[in-house]
Design a protein that fits this description.
Elements (H helix, E strand, L loop, with lengths): L1 H18 L1 H7 L7 E6 L6 H5 L6 E6 L9 H13 L4 E7 L3 H5 L8 H6 L3 H10 L6 H23 L3 H8 L4 E7 L6 E4 L1
Parallel strand pairs: 1-2, 1-3, 3-4
Antiparallel strand pairs: 4-5
Helix pairs in contact: 7-8
Length: about 190
């Protein structure tokens, strides 16, 4: 597989990189992204591709379940750097269809770290389950998952707003926060309200 990655890089350098050399030369001088993108680690989602944005546009933080965890130093560092130093104007939390993290909320496991991490998303499941009857058909199960995936985006926005650096930037109208949802079946990116 590594050989395939290196071959892909060679094609990238000979094609896209070469065609956009001036842009890449500018990027060597520093970064100035306008968006902090918080998305899922799912390998099926390539953020730059689905948004058709050039390198340097998005400052990306990905993790299992597109979580904005409370009390996480890594995440807090990303927020602080993006807001205070890179001066991003927008923060996006993007969920997606067929999310394994959301499916895992219903499963018993002997994993150690994944359930701890997913505690940051379990409230989304509880909120949806309080609103709808227990699903009985495969279509109802799929719809419930979609609802939880989208509710998780809303929940993570709530978490995000609890960080002092975010609260301050929102109060000073320096940033806006957006919830998005990516559908793997049709490639559509839609707004979550």
């Amino acid at each position: 597989m590594i050989d395939k990655l290196l071959e892909g890089n060679k094609k990238f350098r000979e094609g896209f990189f070469k065609e956009n050399k001036a842009h890449y030369d500018e990027l060597t001088k520093g970064q100035n992204p306008s968006v902090l993108w918080i998305g899922c680690s799912d390998s099926r989602i390539q953020t730059g591709h689905i948004t058709q944005t050039m390198p340097g546009t998005l400052f990306i933080q990905r993790n299992i379940g597109n979580v904005a965890p409370l009390h996480d130093w890594n995440f807090a560092t990303v927020l602080e750097y993006a807001i205070r130093h890179l001066k991003v104007k927008d923060i996006v939390i993007c969920g997606h269809s067929d999310c394994g993290a959301i499916k895992a909320l219903d499963k018993e496991t002997d994993d150690v770290y994944i359930p701890l991490w997913l505690n940051n998303a379990v409230e989304a499941k509880s909120r949806v389950d309080a609103k709808i009857p227990l699903p009985k058909t495969p279509d109802e199960v799929k719809e419930r998952s979609r609802m939880i995936e989208q509710e998780n985006v809303r929940l993570q926005i709530e978490h995000l707003k609890r960080y002092p650096v975010v609260k301050k930037a929102l109060a000073e109208k320096k940033i806006e926060i957006h919830g998005l949802y990516y559908d793997l079946t049709n490639g559509a990116l839609t707004t979550i309200v």
